[in-house]
Amino acid sequence: MENTILTVDDLHLSLQGKKILRGIKMDIWAGHVHAIIGPNGAGKSTLVSAIMGLPGYKPEQGKVYFLGEDITNLQVYERAQRGLTLAWQEPARFEGLSVEKFILTGAKNKCHKRAEEVLEMVGLDPQKYLSRAVDKTLSGGERKRIELASIIAMEPKLILLDEPDSGIDIDALQKIFSLLQSLKKEGITVFAITHSLAVLNQVDHAFLMCCGKVLDKGDVKRIASYFQNKCIPCNHDRLVSVSNEMTS
C-alpha cells in the first residue's frame, strides 16, 4: 500500500533454540493506530523486539522495512534516528535524574515548554512532576506515562507500545486513550501490544497472533471476538498435531 510505513516480510526468529516467530507477514499503515493481540507466548513481544532491532532478536530469515528502507540489519540507534521507537512494558528507571531531564534527553526540542507540553499530553501536572526524580517514589503507572512523554518529545514516526495499559489505573487508562487519538491527529503511527479489550476498541486495525503466526487481521470488532471466545477456529499446525495425538 502507498501509505505503508512498516512492512514485516516472512520473519522467522528463534530464541535459545526454540522457534518463536514463524513467517510473520504484516503491513502497518501510516497515521493509524494498530494493535496486536494473542495469548501469552504467542511471540508478540519478540516481534516488536525484532522490529526495533534489540540485541538477541536478529531474525534468521525475513526482512523488516521502514519507510521503504530495509532496516533488518540496522542497530537500535539507527532505527531510532529514522523515527522508530519502542516504549517498554516496564519502563526503565534512571535513578536521580529529574523528570524534565529524562524527557528532554532525547527530545528534538530541548526546551522547558516542550517538557511541560508532553507531560500534559499524558495527563500529568508539569508543576508536580518536572522536578521530581525518576526513582522508586514514582508508581509504575507514573513511570509509564513519563516514558511515553519522553517518547512523544522525540517526535517519532512510529511508536511501538508494549502493553500501554499494564500497571495503570482507570483514570490513567483514559489518558492513554486520549493520547492514542492525539498521536493519530499528529500523524504519528502507533503499533501496540495489548491484552485489553478496552484498548483494542480504541484502535483502527488489529492483528491476532498465536504460536508465532498471524492468524487474522483487519476489522477490530471481528478480532475482538478472541476476547469473548479466548480462541478462534483455525487449522494451526499445533492444533492439528494435538488433534492427531488425541485420535491416535
Describe the structure.
The chain is α/β, with parallel strands linked by helices and 248 residues long. Helices cover 36% and strands 25% of the residues. The protein is built from 11 helices and 10 strands. A 6-stranded mixed beta sheet has the order 6-7-8-3-9-10, with helices on both faces. Strand 9 and strand 10 form a beta hairpin. Helix 4 packs across helix 6. It is globular and about 55 Å long. The C terminus is likely disordered.
Q: What share of residues are in beta strands? A: 25-35%
Which stretches are low in confidence, meaning pLDDT under 50 for 5 or more residues running?
A: 239-248
Secondary structure category: alpha/beta
Oligomer: single chain
Q: Which whole number gives the mean pLDDT? A: 85
What is the terminal separation in angstroms? 46 Å
Task: Give me the side-by-side strand order of the main sheet.
Answer: 6-7-8-3-9-10
Rounded to an integer, what's the Rg over CA atoms?
19 Å
Number of helices: 11
Strand element count: 10
Largest sheet: 6 strands, mixed
* Helix coverage percent: 25-40%
Dominant shape: globular
The string of secondary-structure elements, in order, is EEEHEEHEHHHHEHEHEEHHH
